[in-house]
Design goal:
- This protein is an alpha/beta fold.
- The protein folds into 2 domains: 144 residues, Aspartate Aminotransferase, domain 1, CATH 3.90.1150; 221 residues, 3-Layer(aba) Sandwich (Aspartate Aminotransferase, domain 2).
- It contains 13 helices and 12 strands.
- The strands form 3 sheets. It has a 7-stranded mixed beta sheet with strand order 2-8-7-6-5-3-4, with helices on both faces.
- Strand 3, helix 6 and strand 4 form a beta-alpha-beta unit.
- The longest helix has 22 residues.
- Bound molecules: pyridoxal-5'-phosphate.
- The site of pyridoxal-5'-phosphate (PLP) has 13 residues, from helix 5.
């Protein structure tokens, strides 16, 4: 007996019926299934720092909770946290925001989701530079908008040019989503690429959603620049960031968006009607993270820097695989075109035969085909084992 006469799918909205679950989470799920069968899987699929949140941050949150900070707080975030974020944006990024121009969200992902809900509707085109983080396109689609996939090419080191952007802009384009340092490619944008984006956005009267989540995780002396700091860009930029990656606080769910009040006040409607606010005592921990000692970040990044070089060497020794050291974030985006396999086939074989979970590049858009993403935010030993196993299965040069 069916409880309803309609098929379950008839109750679903098109926006979810047509959406796929996150492919990166799907990889981790598959790895978990193998582990449950007693197989020792090295999971390089996720994007979670392999460090525990610093002690003083944990203590600040625990102290807040024990002191009774267990109630609803201001929807857009506590004033001490919004002030700490404003101070960070000023000192790190040269950006001036009043606390009223900031919304604290449960993770940076929620900030992006809320902004997309506030800005995108049917008939609106949003440009996404691909390979791109897996959630941008589904967010735009769930809001009823149309994704314009701007495919970058590996042979030009995923470089963004004005010509490429111009070839994709339409009269319906309202926004462009930018992510530097990039997940999955690790690319850190250069001056000429910033100029291409800024020129396009000004000439076509667009707004930018800039995801700067990995700004602190950057190598070889490269420098992160915030798009909102370019002349004339503050007014047309929403800056997204969070504490997940830089402070090893993924599970805390603290992120934020900063931008002009004309946008922030509207995004706040989506925020208050969905999540109310980010967790009260997590926000107390976030204040300690932003205002306390910062050395921890450098220590973490040095460890990833070492692993970045090691994994690049390990992967490049596999026949058909090229993997120069990444520029930023903690992902190696290895070129596997020389193996003759597509990214899904490679990732499946890596999991089933080498027991190493990696993400197929196609998960990041068609432009990511021919690549796999490996997270090196894991121990040196795990990375060594992974390279060893992949070498045995796919062969060495
Ligand atoms: N943006 C990018 C590019 C990411 O890789 C991630 C997490 O993996 C996020 C945003 C969201 O991070 P969180 O929601 O943990 O702040």
């Amino acid at each position: 007996m069916h409880a309803t006469h309609r098929a379950p799918s008839e109750f679903l909205a098109g926006r979810v019926r047509d959406a796929s679950p996150s492919p990166t989470i799907a990889v981790s799920d598959k790895a978990r299934v193998l582990r449950a069968q007693g197989i020792d899987v090295v999971d390089l699929g996720g994007g979670d720092p392999d460090f525990i949140t610093p002690e003083h941050v944990r203590k600040a949150a625990a102290d807040a909770m024990n002191a009774g900070d267990t109630h609803y707080v201001a929807a857009n975030g506590t004033l001490p946290l919004k002030k700490a974020i404003a101070a960070k944006l000023k000192s790190d990024n040269g950006l001036t925001y009043d606390p009223s121009e900031i919304i604290v969200t449960p993770g940076g992902k929620q900030a992006l989701f809320e902004a997309v809900m506030a800005l995108v509707e049917p008939g609106v085109d949003v440009m996404i530079l691909e390979p791109a983080w897996v959630s941008y396109a589904p967010m735009v689609e769930m809001a009823g908008g149309n994704v314009v996939h701007v495919g970058l090419t590996p042979d030009g080191n995923w470089r963004i040019t004005r010509d490429l952007l111009e070839a994709h802009v339409t009269p319906a384009t309202r926004a462009i989503m930018v992510n530097s340092p990039n997940n999955p490619t690790g690319r850190v944008l250069e001056e000429s690429e910033f100029e291409a984006i800024v020129g396009l956005v000004k000439d076509h009267d667009l707004i930018i959603l800039t995801d700067e989540m990995y700004e602190k995780i950057i190598y070889d002396g490269r420098v992160h620049r915030s798009l909102a700091s370019w002349p004339g860009m503050w007014e047309r930029t929403l800056t997204f960031n969070g504490l997940s990656k830089a402070y090893a606080m993924t599970g805390w769910r603290v992120g934020y968006v900063a931008g002009p009040r004309s946008f922030i006040d509207e995004i706040a409607k989506v925020h208050s009607h969905s999540v109310t606010h980010a967790t009260s005592f997590a926000q107390a921990g976030a204040v300690a993270a932003l205002t306390g000692p910062q050395e921890f970040i450098g220590d973490m990044v040095s460890a990833w820097d070492r692993r970045r070089v090691a994994i690049s060497r390990g992967l490049s020794s596999i026949s058909g695989v090229e993997c120069p050291p990444t520029e930023g974030a903690f992902y190696a985006f290895a070129d596997i075109r020389g193996t003759g396999m597509d990214s899904m086939a490679f990732a499946d074989r890596a999991l089933q035969e080498a027991h190493v979970a990696v993400v197929p590049g196609v998960a990041f858009g068609n432009a990511g085909e021919g690549h796999i993403r490996i997270s090196f935010a894991t121990s040196d030993e795990q990375l060594e084992t992974a390279a060893e196993r992949l070498g045995s299965v796919f062969g060495r040069r």
